[in-house]
Prior knowledge:
Chain A is α/β, with parallel strands linked by helices and 432 residues long. Chain A has helices spanning 3-6, 22-35, 45-53, 68-90, 105-119, 135-146, 157-172, 180-183, 207-218, 235-238, 250-269, 284-291, 318-324, 326-334, 347-363, 374-384, 428-431, and strands spanning 9-15, 40-44, 95-99, 123-131, 188-193, 198-202, 226-230, 277-280, 300-301, 368-372, 401-407, 412-418, 423-425. The radius of gyration of chain A is 24 Å and the shape is globular. The relative contact order of chain A is 0.11. The A-B interface holds A 1, 3-4, 180, 196-207, 209-211, 213-214, 217-218, 243-245, 300, 302-304, 309, 314, 340, 342-343, 345, 349, 352-353, 356-357, 359-360, 363 and B 1, 3-4, 180, 196-207, 209-211, 213-214, 217-218, 243-245, 300, 302-304, 309, 314, 340, 342-343, 345, 349, 352-353, 356, 359-360, 363.
Amino acid sequence: xxxxxxxxxxxxxxMGLPARGKxxxxxxxxxxxxxxxxxxKLFNIGKYRRDSYGTKDCNAEFFxxxxxxxxxxxxxxxxxALQDLVKFLKNGxxxxxxxxxxxxxxxxxxxxDLLKQELGENHTLIWIESICNDDVIIENNIRSSKxxxxxxxxxxxxxxxxxxxxxxEQYKKVYQEISTELDGEDVSFIKLSNVTKKIVMxxxxxxxxxxxxxxxxxxxxxxxxxxxxxxxxxMNNAERKLxxxxxxxxxxxxxxxxLKQFFDDxxxxxxxxxxxxxxxxxxxxxxxxxxxxxxxxRPASFKILDELDAGVCDNMTMDxxxxxxxxxxxxxxxxxxxxxxxxxxxxxxxxxxIEPIIFAIEKCTEPVIVVSHTxxxxxxxxxxxxxxxxxxPHIEIPLETVIKLNPDAYYxxxxxxxxxxxxxxxxxQDIS
Amino acid sequence: xxxxxxxxxxxxxxMGLPARGKxxxxxxxxxxxxxxxxxxKLFNIGKYRRDSYGTKDCNAEFFxxxxxxxxxxxxxxxxxALQDLVKFLKNGxxxxxxxxxxxxxxxxxxxxDLLKQELGENHTLIWIESICNDDVIIENNIRSSKxxxxxxxxxxxxxxxxxxxxxxEQYKKVYQEISTELDGEDVSFIKLSNVTKKIVMxxxxxxxxxxxxxxxxxxxxxxxxxxxxxxxxxMNNAERKLxxxxxxxxxxxxxxxxLKQFFDDxxxxxxxxxxxxxxxxxxxxxxxxxxxxxxxxRPASFKILDELDAGVCDNMTMDxxxxxxxxxxxxxxxxxxxxxxxxxxxxxxxxxxIEPIIFAIEKCTEPVIVVSHTxxxxxxxxxxxxxxxxxxPHIEIPLETVIKLNPDAYYxxxxxxxxxxxxxxxxxQDIS
Lengths: 432, 432
């Protein structure tokens, strides 16, 4: 469905008081949209402010709407960020996320006018407002993300929190929620209240927009663990053949009790429990592997977790492919991401195919175990670990290794366990 | 993703004043959810009322909230419909749509309580409220659907309209919009204003629910035409082989200028125009065919419009399949809908694959031409013409025939043109 978006550039512009999770949501949107294959980029006004004015004098007074000089300075940063955003969209960008508070109608009108002037009718501007009136969530937000902000480097945490709360109060003085009454009947917006408990949409339609709404509906902020497990060695792996639906090899079968043991141990530590979801594909090597994981529930098999379809090359060895289809071989080596096997799939196709699984994993607040195949696991890993799309076809997903992800929006933690020899091994971050 | 829904039964319960498009939306939801492969059914309270009390004495007085006897009678019908709905869900139903006005908190609480009592925790109740404050839309709704209602059979149209407007006023006396204040913080609802211009969601999450929201976001009520065009005869068609990526046969090539002429004629009548969308697959026979249609825009090629993947049987003749894979052959004959070719796809898989195209077509307010393959066109036809899923693999999609659909929620009109001999031919309805 790639060409749907090309008709118009899309700008998702954030708005909301500080500590409402705007940057978390922005980061997630850019990850998701990029992973779908669109050229997407984040423009964070705060970063422009820090780059221009540093972080020395940015205590709460800097955010006082009565402080004319500071207001002017902050406006300049917003415009600079917006100009770069326009440049990006004019030079091949598809989707841009504009992350800032955009507190009142006047500011939002300025943004809309500048975009219209620069991009004409060839764009859609959608405001995403994050509202939170739960003091506990706000306090947690401040503690979990603002204390590590460059704005408060070297500042005592309690002082930083007090200052940040003052900053919020400064913004509240001029804050106006978006509405059709204030911003006009035709304004497009998505208003999220208390994460995604309540969502209000006005004038939202279109392919990417619908996808984004579904995505946002599944977001939550409860951290949960994801296990990525490649099936045991198959007969085709042993013979270095692509795809097929082979059974496990002898080596694959020997591995199963060790994998069972690994998850029994995780059960003992409480890392997995009877609420853990276990997803697998419909192919034999994957189902056989998933079946040994004993967490209570039976594995749920999904066709969309099947391995990348190698089309006419299915069941062939790499050497055979190279001999029989030398041009295909070369094309694949040149661009492994977009290369589509004749009658088969590309990595880009695969990403679109497995998207419902990403939503299902995002939605879970409990651990999830995915037993699947190299290419599929590469796509899932790439999404959660925020790897550029072009790196995805090259991510290492070794046999007999369990990858344990503890993802969040700002950093990613990964552990890898070689289950065969029962020890922790290097992660991709360690290696690179 | 079939198993996601099985965890819980889902009830979408409509609410809203009369003539707000509730039945249109209900019908669309049931079509869409059934087409995805779920066991879904509509329970319309009005139908229960007509079955129990006939249509003789159902003028506006019957809907006066002060008319105690009638209130009691209408309540009985709601309960009867709800009991049947529960029975359906207990006997294998996945999703039920409960279509009625459900005007106030008391009535909604009664529905929620009855469902909880009967289904326990094993269900999700989601209210869908349709609000409309545009008098033109309301008047149009009354004229286009209420005049043909059995309630007004044989009644003078102008009298019927006046009576129906009175009926709306009766409902307004007791109507309470759904809200967290009235219905509680935890109530799940989707509120649609003026079709889908504004959408408010509270506590909506989950796989089917997200799909439904995306679906609703693309709905509109502007009728538009859809042309389904099978590619010209391919070399594999001529040799009675499955799938592959063959070129057009001689017969296929001879057909192209006639197809071009057909759409040139449609252009002359204004049935298609330069805003018409033209979608096709990535396979040669389909792209070659689409390329001759000269409506201005180039065809957009989508991998998801490619033919059903016959897996290991690709490029084989039916006789070869029967000989080489006799068990597969039998399995396919037994259940063509769910049958999945080894390493290939089933019709159910195909439905899920092409879903974004359905959204794209639903979204268009201009004509759409889809040039694709038998199985894909069967799925699209089945959705718009509301055919039961099990019939889809058997729908006739002949060569050299253009199918022109004028779909709406209540009835379907289809025309078929044999382009080869340049004449209108019988539709499926004519035949059956």
